[in-house]
Write a structure and sequence with these properties.
Elements: E1 2-13, E2 16-27, E3 31-35, H1 42-49, E4 57-62, E5 65-66, H2 72-77, E6 80-83, H3 95-102, H4 109-122, H5 124-128, H6 139-151, E7 157-161, H7 169-184, E8 188-192, H8 196-202, E9 205-210, E10 213-219, H9 220-224, H10 227-233
Parallel strand pairs: 3-8, 3-9, 6-7, 7-8
Antiparallel strand pairs: 1-2, 1-4, 4-5, 9-10
Helix pairs in contact: 3-6
Amino acid sequence: MSLLSLNNVHIGYGGIKAVKGISVQVNAGELVTLIGANGAGKTTVLKAISGLLKPSAGEIQYDETSIVGTAPHHISQRGLALVPEGRGVFPGLTIEENLAMGAYCRNDKAVIASDMEIAYQRFPRLKERAKQTAGTLSGGEQQMLAISRALMSRPRLLLLDEPSMGLAPIMVQKIFAVVREVAASGVTILLIEQNAKLALQVSHRAYVMDGGVITLEGASPDLLTDPRVREAYLGEAA
């Protein structure tokens, strides 16, 4: 069953047509990735899904209901969480307070406390620094926190924007191990990632975006061996 569908979506801002009629479908329980070079329009797509930008044309449906024009906080309350590019943690709040902010729509205190403990088990470093302000954390620690904060809302659909950006290889491995774990737990994920090889290795299906349009789509294992993808995004000769 389709949890998220974009049909012929156009998005423009500041006189720029960033997205030019794309159609994307994410089924419940899937991990789908959207890959492409910088400036392809990938982040713009996530902003539109989460309500931060309004498409100029086309339809976005979440759980078979249109969310075009719906306020971001209402979209979030329906079970959609975004981990933005650049992490977007609250720098002046502690790790603990950031996690609590992720659960602001919930009132099941005992379960919130349990979910916070799960976050600490996933990323023990966060527990060690629970009373430390987020602005003093390393980039990798902030990414751990941003993902954990999003999961505190218990989302049905998790949007991840460039989770590996700027991170050391060992931290990237840790982050993506958790992405796999979260997907295996049943959370649907739409992943935007510049590391095409890594994205295709963890996902079920993929869309390739270039210049605001979808140029390729298919099962991730197939795209991983596609000569066009290997040459353009994996740095290998066709």
